[in-house]
Amino acid sequence: MPIGEIPRTCKMAEDICYYNTVFRSVEQLKTTRNIQT
After folding, report:
1. Is residue 31 assigned to a domain?
2. What CA–CA distance (Å, rounded) separates 22 from 30?
3. Is 17 a domain residue?
4. 9: which of 1, 26, 31, 37 is 20 to 30 A away, CA to CA?
């Protein structure tokens, strides 16, 4: 979901939680790529 599509009504905590989840999955992708290489 692009940043612009996050509803204004979203609570700050929910936004932070969402970005943390995205960040975590990106980090996991990097880690698995490193292991494969």
Report:
1. yes
2. 13
3. yes
4. 26
Which pLDDT belongs to residue 16? Answer: 75
Please state the domain count of the chain.
Answer: 1
**Separation CA 16–CA 25 (nearest Å):** 14
Residues in the chain: 37
16 located within any domain: yes
Contacts of 18 (CB under 8 A, 6+ apart): 1, 6
Q: For residue 25, is it within any domain?
A: yes
Token pair for residue 20?
A: 């943390």
Residue range 1-37, pLDDT digits in tens: 455 655 555 567 777 777 878 888 888 888 888 776 6
